[in-house]
Automatic annotation (TrEMBL):
Alphabetic keyword roster: Pyridoxal phosphate
Name of this protein: Pyridoxal phosphate homeostasis protein
Gene3D superfamilies named among the record's database cross-references: Alanine racemase
Organism taxonomic ancestry: Bacteria, Pseudomonadati, Verrucomicrobiota, Verrucomicrobiia, Verrucomicrobiales
Organism from which the protein derives: Brevifollis gellanilyticus
InterPro entries with a match to the protein in the record: Ala_racemase_N, PLP-binding_barrel, PyrdxlP_homeostasis
Tree of life domain: Bacteria
CDD domains: PLPDE_III_YBL036c_like
Amino acid sequence: MSDIAERLNQIRERISTACTRAGRDASSVELVAVSKTKPVEVIQEAVDAGQLLFGENRVQEVLLKRPLLPSKLRWHLIGPLQSNKVRKILPQVEMIEAVDSLDIAKDINRIGAELGLHPKVLLEINVAVESSKHGFGATQIREQLEELYGLDRLYIQGLMCIPPFDLTPEQSRKYFVQLRTLRDELEKIGGAPLPVLSMGMSHDFEVAIEEGATLVRVGTAIFGGR
Ligand SMILES: *Cc1c(COP(=O)(O)O)cnc(C)c1O
């Protein structure tokens, strides 16, 4: 078995154990293999090991790699999106995970309509209120939710967050709780389900699962360092 296959098996095992611990069904969590900076040969190894869902943080990498890999793969854009790249990326990915402002949501909505698409998106929340980070603040998302729901091409499926990097998994837990709690509140305010919570990375995905993650974005623990 290749190293990547072995690590993927271990991650799947750990996801399943975390689900059991949290009293959740293992099928309620999906693994996004974060393949940024990794060449297609390496990604193909993960495909051979049964992984079909991949996350990239740059538009350019999706455009380069996707045509060289099997068409059955599903891609999520997990990094910030600039308005001048919306038209290129929308037809290529299953989900835009990091919609971080009303402006970019409007662009995705408008261009989605022009292309005849109904883009699936997640709203990125700046949980730690770091000025260096992208995303909606909690107050801002409450104020802008109605306008976001007015963008009728968008399927707003849930929320995502990236807590500060230098925390232990237990320190990250409060941010995962915060995202879940905010989701519950926004479902009430907006009257629409937000079933997807994208949270948890290589070092803290198990805690994220305990707190309700439905997508975990794991790179280093599968592919090694970048
Ligand atoms: C790189 C990246 C990840 C994966 O991080 P690892 O620590 O390598 O697992 C997850 N989410 C986002 C948004 C990323 O940019």
